[in-house]
Design a protein that fits this description.
The chain is of the alpha+beta class. The protein is 35% helix and 26% strand. The chain folds into 2 domains: 5-172 and 291-374, Aminopeptidase; 175-287, Alpha-Beta Plaits (2-Layer Sandwich). The two termini are 26 Å apart. The structure holds the ligand CC(=O)N[C@@H](CCC[C@H](N)C(=O)O)C(=O)O.
Amino acid sequence: MSTPAKFIQIRRDLHQIPEPGFQEFKTQQYLLNYISTLPQERLEVNVWRTGILVKVKGSRPTRTLGFRCDMDALAIAEDTSYPFRSTHPGYMHACGHDVHMTIGLGVLTHFAEHAVDDDLLFIFQPAEEGPGGALPMLASVEFQAWRPDLIFALHIAPEYPVGTIATCPGILFANTSELFIDLVGKGGHAAFPHRTHDMVIAQAHLVTQLQSIISRNIDPLDAGVITIGKIEAGTRQNIIAERARLEGTIRTLSMESMAKIKSRIEAVVKGIEVGFECKAEIDYGANYCQVFNDEALTTDFMNWLQETGTANLVVCREQMTGEDFGYFLAEIPGFMFWLGVDTPYGLHHAKIEPSEDAIGVALNTMTQYLTKLATR
Ligand SMILES: CC(=O)N[C@@H](CCC[C@H](N)C(=O)O)C(=O)O
């Protein structure tokens, strides 16, 4: 199914206004403006911080089906070939949340115009990239008042062709923890290293030693990742750095490995303190629990995809990506799936250009599948 021009325009509009977690003010207003143009007879709208909840009342409801889309963007300077590039310097929708929100609006549009038996809840959730909007939204009075009985979400997948949906029952995304480490030593003149405690050297050793935790302390059959995505140290080429900061993320498939990695990080950091005569502070930032797809619901969805041929199903393996949608799935049965968007650049890349044809595939899939679930 081709993507209606209206939704291509919406995706492009949203792409131009990327905002970080809990600062999605323009995005929220854009979504609210659009929602106000829909037939209002069966809609109820509420806001939670920078997020939005839209209930579509069913004609004879016995349950509520939820569809969640994330709203925030990343601190990346866009480098696409788009004429509709980000108008917010240093921020970009590089993880597809512009596509996710467009799909959410498209499916909502369908159900605002076509009644089904059950209630539907459209959840536009802020701060997925961090610090995590799912957990506080889940606990909010607004969400609990309309709490769904089942919940679904999708995520764009650059590596799959358009028309592909990939998922599996059980674990789909990993447990995550952010990681921030600050080192403070003694700076000084570049010519007198013996009078200083150089935090560039300490930082370099620490980055390397952290990687040995994965290779030496974690069961190779129980995957783990430590990625240091950002390092900062020093002020000038001929000044020995007094401070250094490492920013990264930890990923595991089991909570045992997460605990093990954290305890090993703490031991390695203590060693750096002694070895390089410095003080260190560790902060684990936001932690997300794994995305665990409900076995029966996911199997039903996969069978339905194959029977109807609505999309090409790939039964995929789990990946080390994180998603705070895992918190919804820890409380409410449901599943998440990957949506093929066929682009050579991966998630979180400044050149990622997801195919807009995938929006039509998702609109078709989600409107048909939710109709099946919500109709008796
Ligand atoms: C799908 C995706 O890319 N999600 C993010 C979630 C980030 C979690 C947190 N801020 C962290 O970095 O640990 C991901 O990076 O996987």
